[in-house]
Amino acid sequence: MRLRTAVSLAALALAALSAPAAAAPLPPLDQRQIPTQLPRTVRPLEYRLDVATDAQNLRFTGTAVIDIEVLQPTNTVTLNAVDLDIKEVALSGLTREGAPSGASTTSRDIRLDAANQTASFHFKTPLALGRHRLTIRYTGKIYTQAAGFFALDYEGVGGRKRALFTQFEAPDARRFFPSWDEPRFRTPYTLSVTVPAGDDVVGNMPAASTRSAGPGLKTVTFQRTPPMSSYLLFLGVGEFDRITTRAANTEIGVVARRGSGEQGRWALTSSARILPYYNQYFGTPFPLPKLDNVAGPGSSQFFGAMENWGAIFSFEGALLVDPAISSEASRQAIFEVAAHEMAHQWFGDLVTMAWWDDLWLNEGFASWMATKATQALHPEWQPELGRIGGREGAMGQDSVATTHPIVQHLTTVEQISQAFDSITYEKGEAVITMLEDYVGSDAWRRGVQDYIRAHKYSNTQTDDLWAAVERAAPGKPVTAIAHDFTLQPGVPLIRVEGARCAGGRTVATLSQAEFTRDRPNKAPLRWRVPVIAATLGAGPRAAAPGRTVVAGGGGTVSAPGCGTLVVNSGQTGYYRTLYAPPLLARLKTDYARLPTVDQLGLLADTWGLGLAGYQSAADALDLVDAAPANPNPRLVTSVSGILRQIYRAYEGDPRHQALVTRYATAKLSPVLASIGWTARPEEPATVAVLRAQLIADLAGVRDPGVIAEANRLFATGSPLATGGPLRGTITSIVAQNLDAAGWDRLRAAAQAEKNPLVRSQLYRQLASARDEALARRALDLALTSEPGATNSAAMISSVAAAHPDLAFDFAIRHREEVEARVDVSSRSRFVPQLGAGSSDPAMIARIEEYATKYLTPQSRRPADQAIAAIRDRVRVRETRLPDISRWLEARVR
Ligand SMILES: [Zn+2]
After folding, report:
1. pLDDT class for 20, splitting at 50, 70, 90?
2. First and final CA of the chain: distance in angstroms?
3. Minimum mean pLDDT range among 167-171, 227-231, 442-446
4. Per-chain residues with Cβ under 5 A from ion ligand 1
5. Mean pLDDT of the chain
6. Of 84, 8, 16, which is closest to residue 556 (Cα–Cα)?
7. What is the 423 CA–ligand 1 centroid distance (Å)?
8. CA dist list (Å): 346 to 429, 481, 796
């Protein structure tokens, strides 16, 4: 699954090891402790599902025929079910070959347990060991938010349309059919669906048969799937276009609402390039006959795309390129989302984690693999530089007390939903990046190929991957290092001191601590940290940089050459590097000469360490000042992002905000002037991404020239503002600065808009006004039927970006109405997140009150994280901004 938004950059905030002991072989999976929320007396063998939709009334009827195996004698069959009305349950015997045998019995005693999301069927006599067939007739709900079986309404060709889709990860298949809804239960599925004859349907597999089902109706039966987990089943119903191509032995398709299929062309050609790359990388070809990517018009507060096997689902913004609105960044994101979801087709779908504790194995790996595929197929986008931003997002969450280990124990449904966070995704990616670099990319890939081959069509735990990689990289303690970084939380801190040159090499002393923003007296954890060091001028990194593994308290590293020392050279390590002042001074002097990746990494570390109080917060501004005149676009946006953060931190202090504006204008407007507002033919894609981001960030620090130009382009109806890659950027700036009359005009435009993508953007922009009265109007509008069911929550979040206190208080006052507009997987975090951007210490008590009233102790982590973010912001303002104020006052006139 891909989360809704990428985590923003920079949250505010061998020698040393003894030879590893040979790794003990792992016992087979069925002998290990795999958590479950269901009795282990019965397991499913195969499902046949027949579903008839009633889209008009948001209902469906279903029949589930489930072949089961009774493992221990029992009178009761318990499985998962939510919001299902179970009408009839029958049980018959089966021969070993699967033929019905003996009489059928029905259960007269059906018990639903809403809290545990289960249904239990009691039978008068105990069920014999062996195979049986369970037949369940039931009805269910079609939801208006994206969980379970859900509807998305939109203005289509010839009027109002309703399309239906499913979204089951993590625990929502149980809203569609009674099921053993846990990933370790892998079975084949044969799905049949009865729908209006004019509708198109998509499933995991191609259709096997289509027949009439009475006047105006048809029944489509899909081919039987290979054994897979329940959360990967998919169904889409609606009026669709489908465009296709072939890659290797697979038919690749993009499915979108009728009339918009061609907008999927970019995703289609991208997918057709990615699939052969993965066939080769994984060494096991894609196993299904077809792979569709299905576009849904709408959005979720939880996710952007989902890796259903053979039928990826993506919201339109993550899949379709609409020339009216799509930016270069969104084109690149579409590629990257497809690469992520397609990586899951192997890592997640073909081989699946046994339980949600190992969710990161899916998500961290797919995130890492997507970057790798992008690097191979679009090196000109420089995706490897984007990893620094991901690392910062993870460290932001990982350096406060509310963090958790990558592998965490999960027991409740809400905990499982909350596990989709930046630790699981970005820290997971960062740790895999570090381990791949540590063992070497060839050994890593051999390990991954062996792992896929050994475990295909089955389930695993994280240690199965480590064991496979360790076998491929003999002598390297992969499992031990991986355990340090996945079983304990937190960010290592490597201090670098006393670098001296001897015999043409630089030797430095390293010591280990823990990087924390909120627990200065914490006893540090210990990691085995693979460290890479290089000196400036010693040649490319390939020329054998210094490597060591810092275990225990510290060690030394020796790098060839006597130039300025860079630790974490190449930035593949997951740790913060804190240099002694003389070493940092040399880095500042040589900053413009460092490789781009190290410029980004050093700036991120220096900023993070400065905000946490390990060094002056102004050190990062020295680096900003030292950035080269013609920097890499990613470095420009790192700088503009930091300046924007500083501007926001000075909220309520117009004098210092004005200094930030003046500094940012002086530093960055020449860059914008050099690339211009209009794209040039043949310009690099990275420049197109930079243009939009730089304009947005300069507007974010209230650069008067940029705001005036955006308003002028909009007012004069410039083609730059009415369509194309800058449209969203320009209209967003205009929207933030609207007056009441302008807001009314924008609303009229939103009401008239038919394109669902543009329409969603306009409603979000209506909610982005800085004017408080207009923000209140947007909140009221969000609870009407006007914006559409899946735009409301996005509007409230959009208000929270500028007015967190207002949005939070509104959501508390209208809690039930607001929660009804948020998908069930996001509910426990939606309201706390609204308040998380507040700078008002009083918000802490309000979030606390919400958590106490409405969240269980197991599900309150989002509230604790929001509180930690506010505390951090208050601490930064009080203790870290003074350094920055002095720096600005000395530099900016
Ligand atoms: Zn994913």
Report:
1. very low
2. 49
3. 167-171
4. 1, 363, 366
5. 93
6. 16
7. 13
8. 17, 25, 37
Residue-wise pLDDT for 545-555, tens only, equals 888 998 888 89
Residue whose token pair is 């689902």: 313
Q: Above pLDDT 70, what percent of the chain?
A: 97
Distance 705 CA to ligand 1 centre (A): 40
pLDDT by residue (tens digit) across 720-767? Answer: 999 889 999 999 999 999 999 999 999 999 999 988 888 999 999 999
Q: Which of 307, 316, 328, 341 is catalytic?
A: 341
- The 3-state DSSP class for residue 598 equals helix
Q: What is the pLDDT of residue 606?
A: 98
Going from the Cα of 343 to the center of ligand 1, the distance in angstroms, rounded, reads: 8
Q: Which helix (H) or strand (E) holds 407?
A: none
Asked whether the predicted pLDDT for residue 18 surpasses 50, the reply is: no
CA of 685 relative to ligand 1 center, distance in Å = 25
Residue 705: per-residue pLDDT: 97
CA distance 27 to 21: 18
- Three-state SS string across 699-732, please? HHCCCHHHHHHHHHHHHCCCHHHHCCCCHHHHHH
AA identity, residue 519: R
Copy the structure tokens of residue 841: 């210490």
The candidate with the shortest Cα–Cα distance to 240, out of 193, 199, 291, 212, is 199
80 strand-pairing partners = 118, 179
Is the pLDDT confidence value at 17 over 70?
no
Q: 888 CB contacts (<8 Å, ≥6 apart)?
A: 621, 656, 659, 660, 663
Position 287, amino acid:
P
- Cα(365) to ligand 1 centroid in Å equals 8
* Contact status, residue 359 vs residue 419, Cβ threshold 8 Å: yes
Beta strands across the sheet bearing 576-579? 554-560, 505-515, 491-502, 576-579
Closest CA relative to residue 457, chosen from 227, 684, 645: 227
- For residue 294, how far is its CA from the centre of ligand 1 (angstroms)? 16
CA dist list (Å): 166 to 220, 293, 313, 348: 16, 13, 9, 18
Out of 107-111, 330-334, 802-806, 823-827, pick the least confident.
Answer: 823-827
- Rounded average pLDDT over 451-476: 95
Residue 239 is among the residues annotated as catalytic for this protein: no
CA of 18 to the centre of ligand 1 (A): 36
Gap between the Cα atoms of 128 and 133, Å rounded: 12
Q: Are 60 and 139 in contact (CB under 8 A)?
A: yes
Res. 877: pLDDT tops 60: yes
Strands (E), 568-723: 576-579
From 20-29, 44-53, 431-440, the region with the lowest mean pLDDT: 20-29
CA of 337 to the centre of ligand 1 (A): 9
Retrieve residue 217's tokens. Answer: 């109706």
DSSP state of 72: S
Count CA atoms within 13 Å of residue 39 on its CB side.
17
Closest listed residue to residue 293, CA positions, set 279, 277, 309: 309
Residue 708 CA to ligand 1 center (angstroms) comes to 40
Tell me the C-alpha distance between 181 and 728, whole Å: 40
Give 1 Cα–ligand 1 centroid separation in angstroms. 3
Q: SS3 string of 234-298? A: CEEEECEEEEEEEECCEEEEEEEECCCHHHHHHHHHHHHHHHHHHHHHHCCCCCCCEEEEEEECC
DSSP letters along 522-584, please? Answer: PPPP---EEEEEEETTS--TTS--EEEEE-TTEEEEEEESSS-EEETTTS-SSSEEEE-HHHH
pLDDT digits (tens, 9 = 90+) for 585-640: 999 999 999 999 999 999 999 999 999 999 999 999 999 999 988 899 999 999 99
Pairing state of beta strands 240-247 and 250-257? antiparallel
